[in-house]
Amino acid sequence: VFIVLLFSTDFDGVVPASQSELLIRHLDQFGEPNALFLVKGKRHGDPVFDTDEFVPKVINFVREVKNENN
């Protein structure tokens, strides 16, 4: 199992959100577990993902994937 968890923003000058969305579409085609967290109005490297909003989402994603693969 190849697990991918992506964090992206729509105002990222380093990695465009479209690249993250493209990767997720390809992973979906192969049935690989994945999640994309896309935040609007933030830049690459902003600490928005290390917050009380996203940490529980990451934990839930990992638990779901673990449960599906046991």
What attributes characterize this protein structure?
17% strand; 70 residues; 39% helix; single chain; alpha+beta; flat; two-stranded parallel ribbon
Folded structure, characterized:
The protein is of the alpha+beta class. The protein is 39% helix and 17% strand. The chain has two helices and two strands; from the N terminus they run E-H-E-H. The chain has helices at 17-29, 55-68; strands at residues 4-9, 34-39. The chain has a two-stranded parallel ribbon. Helix 1 links the parallel strand 1 and strand 2 (34-39). It starts with a strand and ends with a helix.
The class by helix and strand makeup works out as alpha+beta
Low-confidence region ranges: none
**Helices and strands, in N-to-C order?**
EHEH
Distance between the amino and carboxyl termini: 12 Å
Q: What is the number of helices?
A: 2
Largest sheet: 2 strands, parallel
* E-strand count: 2
Overall 3D geometry? flat
User: Average pLDDT, to the nearest integer?
Assistant: 91
Q: Helicity range of the residues?
A: 25-40%
Rg, Cα atoms, Å: 13 Å
Q: For the largest sheet, list the strands in their spatial order.
A: 1-2
Strand percentage: 15-25%
